[in-house]
Amino acid sequence: MVIKVYLASSSGSTAIKKKQQDVVGFLEALKIDYSQLDIASNEENRQWMRENVPGEMKPTSGIPLPPQIFNEQMYCGDYETFFNAKEDNAVYEFLGLTPPPGSKRKVAEEENQDEGDEDKGEDNHLVSEDEEELQKLEEEEQGSEEAED
Predict the structure, then answer these.
(1) Which has the closest alpha carbon to 108: 88, 124, 127?
(2) The dihedral of CA 72, 77, 78, 80: what is its sign?
(3) Which residues of 58-72 are buried (b: 16+ CB within 10 A; e: fewer)?
(4) pLDDT at residue 77 is higher than 50
(5) How far is Cα of residue 53 from the mean position of the Cα atoms in its chain?
(6) Which of 64, 101, 109, 134 is deepest in the core (most CB within 10 A)?
(7) CATH class, 3-98 region
(8) Is 122's pLDDT higher than 80?
(9) 36, 5 contact by CB (below 8 A)
(10) What is the rounded distance in angstroms from the CA atom of residue 6 to the CA atom of residue 71?
(11) More confident position, 137 or 4
């Protein structure tokens, strides 16, 4: 699988240039194989990108701006969705790739799986942090009511 990043090599927009650099730099840092496809100098790339960005992901102008990211023919997203995935440590999922061993997301998944195995003991009920906090408050209130009686 090849990640394809559609870029504009001669964009006049500094915002677009920065977004493109951010995507490419991050992919390089993670050592993810990708190819850059220039939409400024290659009309076929521009047409393919525009035709394959899903309608709901196109801006109101109807013309998607670079960078646009694909895994082969599968649309992954634009810069904003890439940025959100990056913030959530979910870039591999965003790209449709399996996280490598030792990646933050992979380690978190393995830890959650291990914890899930441990928590299945007594009542097979996983209690969220909010529920635990609520239980503690209720127990404290009961304790103070009993002390008053």
Answers:
(1) 88
(2) negative
(3) eeeeeebbbbbbbbe
(4) yes
(5) 18
(6) 64
(7) alpha beta
(8) no
(9) yes
(10) 11
(11) 4
Domain locations in the chain? 3-98, 106-148
* Separation CA 76–CA 19 (nearest Å): 16
Q: In the structure encoding, which two tokens stand for residue 50, read together?
A: 């525009």
Tokens of 124: 């097979």
Segment 10-14 long-range contacts (CB within 8 Å, at least 24 positions apart) = 10/40, 10/41, 11/40, 11/66
Higher pLDDT, 76 or 107: 76
